[in-house]
Design a protein that fits this description.
By secondary structure, the chain is an all-beta fold. Helices cover 0% and strands 43% of the residues.
Length: 113
Amino acid sequence: MGEPAQAELSLPACSWTDASTGPSKLVVANRSGKSVQLVWLSYDGTEQVYNVLENGQDTQQDTYSTHVWELRDEEGGRIIQYAGPSVRIHVLPEGVSVVGQPAPPATLPSETF
């Protein structure tokens, strides 16, 4: 079996004073067959492991929409990085499934910056 696909969602531009921040929940369901770490990345770059989920375990983390979280595999490799509104992330042998993620804004081909 090949390696699970890694997914990276675009992160919102944010700061400590971002007025758009609000409470959110990050629900993680680990069905990967391996251990998964839930790591918070603070604004100053430090990392804090909040939970280690064994296969079959779920967790719910209260957080804020501007807080950045990573799920990592047993070797410390990034599975997914996320910040935003409440979602449920399923970690599966073949990759991840994110439920509740809003669609990214559409970019029209004629737009120039």
